[in-house]
């Protein structure tokens, strides 16, 4: 069981919600890996709670699609499937292409500077090889682009999709060989937007997300091979 897992029981929330949020974050950040079993007793001991809030949290995670119940085995972290990946990235690509287009039309000089700073912070994070830092700075870079659209409804839709995308971000960022490509793509998106090159910006975003899909599908297929070997 993961030694890093901790729960803050002082949060102003019912205990079942605190446990749910703790387990949910552990799955989204990759502390619990796809296919890993979630043992109620072990989790309860680790978190210092009874089995009841753990059981309730696992049920909620199942409803969200983050956990699956396996007959005679119990709960385990849901594996990322090619279909789920394609569905999420298909939506993300459409929305972020629109963001890039609107950003080229609406970005201010102040926002160009904000985007430049976030690009620099992302570059520093990539150099550090700290996965959590890279993911956080990746999110912040894209958030500035969303902000420049001045479209609150679009931003809200993207925020609703954020946590589903976050899980994939963690997975493809683990591939250190891809870090240089990520940085290059961010620079290309930045250049296109600050120069108000609408078509180029949209194409850069499309390539950026397509490359992530390729890497993730490769990783999913490799994981499936490993699963089959264990059977």
Describe the structure.
The model has no long low-confidence stretch (mean pLDDT 90). Helix content is 73%, strand content 3%. Helix 1 crosses helix 3 and helix 8 packs antiparallel against helix 9. A hairpin with a 3-residue loop joins strand 1 and strand 2. The chain is mainly alpha-helical.
Distance between the termini: 22 Å
The whole-angstrom Rg is: 19 Å
**Pattern of helices and strands:** HHHEEHHHHHH
Mean pLDDT: 90
Biggest sheet architecture: 2 strands, antiparallel
Count of helical segments? 9
What are the main properties of this structure?
single chain; mainly alpha; 9 helices; globular
Structure, briefly:
It is built from nine helices and two strands.
Layout of helices and strands, plus pairs?
Layout: H1 15-28, H2 40-47, H3 51-63, E1 67-70, E2 74-77, H4 82-106, H5 109-128, H6 131-148, H7 152-173, H8 179-194, H9 198-230
Antiparallel strand pairs: 1-2
